[in-house]
Amino acid sequence: MSTGTVATFEDSLERLEVGWTHASPDGLADVLEGLCSDQTIGVDLPYDGVDLPEWVNTDPTPADLHEANAGITAAGLGIADYGSVVVQGTPDGIEPVSLFGDLHVAVLRRSDIVPGMPEAFDWLGEEFRTGHSSAIIATGPSATADMGALVKGAHGPKEVHVVILDE
Amino acid sequence: MSKAREAKAAKIRQLMETEGDAVGTSTRGFNEGRYQSVQTLDDYEGLKSEARAIKEDAIERLPELIDQLRETVESNGGTLYIADDAADANQYIREVCEDKEAERVVKSKSMTSEEIEVNEDLEAADIDVVETDLGEWVLQVADESPSHIVAPAIHKSREAIADLFNETFEPDEPLETAEELTMFAREQLGELIEGADVGMTGANFITADTGTMALVTSEGNARKTAVVPDTHVAVAGVEKVIPTVEDLRPFVELIGKSGTGQDITSYISLLTPPVESPTVDFDAPDTPLSATETDRDFHLVLIDNGRFDMREDDQLRETLYCIRCSACSNVCANFQHVGGHAFGGETYSGGIGTGWEAGVEGLDSAAEFNDLCTGCSRCTTACPVEIDIPWINTVVRDRVNRGEVSELDWLVEGLTPDEEPGGVSLQKRFFGNFETAAKVGSFFAPVSNWAAGLGVSRDIMERFLGIDARRELPAFQRETLKDWFENRTSRVDDPVRTAVLYPDVYTNHVQVERGKAAVRTLEALGVDVIVPDVRSSGRAPLSQGMIATAEDHAHDVYAGLAEHIDDGRDIVVIEPSDLAMFRTEYEKFLPEKSFERISEASYEVMEYVFGLLEHGADADALSTSEGEGVAYHSHCQQRTLGLEGHTEAVLSDLGYDVATSDVECCGMAGSFGYKSEYYELSVDVGSELQGQFQTDENRDRTVVASGTSCLEQLDSLLSRPTQHPIQLVAPRL
């Protein structure tokens, strides 16, 4: 992915007050350790040779979801113009794991960042036509203004962090 | 004032006092956010047109798309049910819940589910229903109805919500901040979701090609509602079906920006249910998700409830393109002051609410609030699918008019030579035939109380016509612009162009000086001027929903101007609401070619002056200034036509220092501010403009405004004189 698109993505994250960190496959564990506290749940990453550290609970129960401080999942796509990540709903539970913790850490391959919505929807159209059932375009943390002022963390994560995996 | 008008005025007064501040703060914030957010798009107008085209095509092909969707939903493993009406939908949903032996249904926000009142139906069957959107939950706890289609509890302040929660739930520590209230609600609702048996959502869009639905949310409750329980019921109107996944793109880019002014909401859930995500069974809290047997059940309930009839209705069909973003509510000056509890019907509120209520509930519900649309047109450019919302309001008004019976038509007899079949309220007939009243007014001028000349006292006018006695009536001039013009000869030698100055009713009978100033200005710039005898544009009857009468005016006006246009003359219009008729509404009344000719030949007077100066006319022939401060309020319809900047540019070029108001509308809006039931609202809306022109920075500036209504409103709100900008720049006598 071109440097320009990655820079745009980072600018968008900055605007959203979403943190981001670059990591190499070897350095990922250290980066995640710096971001997460105990009670971190996760879903195994679909990238060859990239594994989550041992301390991440990758086989959570409903009780674990309820108690989780952080949830680590892959993101299928990054959308530079908006600072969005696409969270796919997979049988191994990316959707609930990304949703219940106070912090969602999205691990995104640098090559999966696209410039804007037209490219994202070309990709999504292909996804849905080839049988994948759900994806969330997630932009920043969950939020509400229903209680009289903007509050981050309504039903979903209060904070999002994007780890950009440089290959 | 009649009892009905007094009751309406009292309701509006009460809502302005109790809910106006909260609604105003939020809607103005959303509206301002929209202006900023759409600027991030490379081609905003193109994207709107793309969205519009997708909706037009989808509604055109709706039966075919629904057939395709049925196949995809069923092959995905779900069920599609088309419900004829609310009762049909509710029965189906209740049976799904009963089959599951459901004790609790959790819901994410859905206007369509409010429309069918499914909560009441399920509760009657002893099924607990919990609204999980925080705003909806506040209303459920308070037992109140939504006041806004996107932010339903917008009328409640933080303090009011804190009081409600503290009284209802008696927490250990009283809740106070928005953060505390949100975290309290999150915890309460989190537990209710964890124990739910069925999740019910709406759907903003559904694609026929894959059966994928899009949910536009920010809180995350819709995600939990769809993923936690094993049964998902989605409720949506049939109009939500679009052809393909790729078609979602313009809507995803437009909906947040148009609505709450966010570039995009936190979550766009794209779900092709039954989804593959594991269910989260909190009844078995220690069983890993990987060991949970996931057997999901999905029911898509598409609701007709009048929509197929709307599709066949040439005037209401556009309503079905609506994506419920709320831009038309937020931009609307009247809505900003009263909210959806006044500006709304059974379910839907705001500008487009009239179309929905007329189609889904019937004319009675639409008639409740239809008159709050003044036709200012500010919503037409805000709407992401380019719906002509004022036109829908006008059509509904016309239909409501035709259903009304009046026994006092004699009172306006002779003043109302209209094309209406009777039944139109006296108030509307009077204002709709304003041209005739103006002629009589000029005849009796300078009698200061021209109403006395008509043999009608202000008391009678208020009682029977609903013209508020607190409003000063326009002062008709004895010598009309046409009289004045006929008694003089043109003073232009070797003219560069010939302009036909359109003598609108107000310029001809009331604001005659601005007409004279326009003639002098054009002549000073080398333009030969003609002031013909042409009928009024039809704006007045159109505003009252008297469409047949307005159309009759359009034919006469075109007949009166056609030869001038054929001869290459330019039509110059002072009153922006009349120019808007020529450029916009006449498309509905005239043959396409005629509309194109009049629309292309017509100019707003300051736009025309701008063009003359651009083409080399001598600015020194006009009244220039060395920095005189001017406070300018453009007319709402002029802004919609994109013509505010021309006045600003001319004034700046001539050396004036211009500050322009940024309120959407002055609140007067033609006859609206005269009507006794709306007088106080009109003044309340106007107070914003009044405030802007009385700041330290602006209070000494000369006040200019483009529209007659705006000038009348400003005259009543400010102590300093007002004038049309053409009067400022016209050469001194």
Q: How would you describe this structure in keywords?
A:
heterodimer; A: 167 residues; alpha/beta; Rossmann fold; globular; B: Rossmann fold; six-stranded parallel beta sheet; four-stranded mixed beta sheet; 36 helices; 11% strand; elongated
Verbal overview:
The complex is a heterodimer of chains A (167) and B (733). Chain A is an alpha/beta fold and 167 residues long. Chain A has one domain (3-165): NagB/RpiA/CoA transferase-like (Rossmann fold, 3-Layer(aba) Sandwich), CATH 3.40.50. In chain A, 29% of the residues lie in helices and 28% in strands. Chain A is built from five helices and eleven strands; from the N terminus they run αβαβαβββαββαββββ. Chain A has helices at residues 3-16, 28-35, 62-67, 94-100, 117-129, and strands spanning 19-23, 40-42, 70-74, 77-79, 84-88, 103-109, 113-114, 134-138, 143-144, 151-152, 159-165. In chain A, the strands form three sheets. A five-stranded parallel sheet of chain A has the order 1-11-6-3-2, with helices on both faces. A four-stranded mixed sheet of chain A has the order 7-4-5-8, with helices on both faces. In chain A, helix 3 (62-67) links the parallel strand 2 (40-42) and strand 3 (70-74). Chain A is globular and about 40 Å long. In chain A, 56% of the residues are buried. In chain B, 49% of the residues lie in helices and 11% in strands. In chain B, helix 3 crosses helix 12 (248-259) and helix 31 (605-614) crosses helix 33 (644-653). In chain B, the strands form four sheets. A six-stranded parallel sheet of chain B has the order 1-10-7-4-2-3, with helices on both faces. A four-stranded mixed sheet of chain B has the order 8-5-6-9, sandwiched between helices. With 733 residues, chain B is an alpha/beta fold. Among the domains of chain B are: 54-283 and 292-307, NagB/RpiA/CoA transferase-like (Rossmann fold), CATH 3.40.50; 481-729, no CATH class. Chain B has 36 helices and 18 strands. The longest helix of chain B is centred in the last third of the chain and has 20 residues, at 547-566. Chain B is elongated, with a radius of gyration of 28 Å. Classes of the chains: A alpha/beta (167), B alpha/beta (733). The interface between A and B is large, with 53 and 73 residues.
